[in-house]
Amino acid sequence: MSENIKYYLSRKGITEIKDFANQLGFKYTTVLDWVNAKTYPRIDKIEKMAKYFGVDKADLVEKHIPNNIQGINKQNIKYIPLIGTIAMGTPITADENIERYIPEFFLDDIPTSELFALHCKGHSMELTIPDGAIAIIHQQPTVEDDEIAAVLIGEEATLKRVKHMGNSILLMPDNKDYDPIIVDKEHPAEILGKMIKYEVSM
């Protein structure tokens, strides 16, 4: 993102970050942090910059590729909130939960339902899901047996395979070195949604 902002500033002939910030009504220090890759702009700021530069939002978010390479259809890109923290009692995609937005490409029609993304931390779901991956979650309150769900336990979200057992639910790790987690009245948890895919940054 920072390199793209600098690229389009240069292409537009803008040499002073302060001038750019003033024209869009942004704080100079905020824009400077974006340019120096210290922070990441929210989706509304990305949209405003894209309109100013006369480009698509994807052009600001994605890496640049040579002009002779055919790009993907940008109409098939959906910007998904990556959840950095989970504030109890607030919707999962509330502003205070969102770390940034990530572009997600869909081969078919873009889903109209709510999607969000989570960092995958730890080794309990290896070899299925590696540590450090980003999981794309379809927001829904229930999942079927053997589906992988994002589950909120306390203030922590975990990815586990779900198995229903009477009035209880077992959250099963794919890594046999880890123990299942029991969810019942004495050990409550909330299913946030079903994992539909994951991605590993190269």
**How many extended strands?**
9
- CATH fold descriptor of the largest domain: Umud Fragment, subunit A
Q: How is the biggest beta sheet arranged? A: 9 strands, mixed
Using the 3D structure, state the CATH architecture of the largest domain. Answer: Ribbon
The end-to-end distance, rounded to whole angstroms, is 17 Å
Oligomer: single chain
CATH class of the largest domain: Mainly Beta
Cα-atom radius of gyration: 20 Å
The topology string of helices and strands comes to HHHHHEEEEEEEEE
Percent strand: 25-35%
Estimate nothing, just give the exact number of structural domains.
2
Largest sheet, order of strands side by side? Answer: 2-1-3-4-9-5-6-7-8
Superfamily (CATH H level) name of the largest domain: Umud Fragment, subunit A
Sequence stretches where pLDDT stays below 50 over 5 or more residues: 65-72
Specify the helix fraction band: 10-25%
Number of helices: 5
Structural class: alpha+beta
Overview of the structural elements:
The protein has helices at residues 2-11, 17-24, 28-35, 43-53, 57-61, and strands at 77-83, 98-105, 115-119, 134-139, 148-153, 156-165, 168-172, 181-183, 190-199. With 202 residues, it is α+β, with helices and mostly antiparallel strands. The protein folds into 2 domains: 2-61, lambda repressor-like DNA-binding domains (434 Repressor (Amino-terminal Domain)), CATH 1.10.260; 76-199, Umud Fragment, subunit A, CATH 2.10.109. It has a 9-stranded mixed sheet, with no helix packed on it. Strand 5 (148-153) and strand 6 (156-165) form a beta hairpin. The protein is elongated.
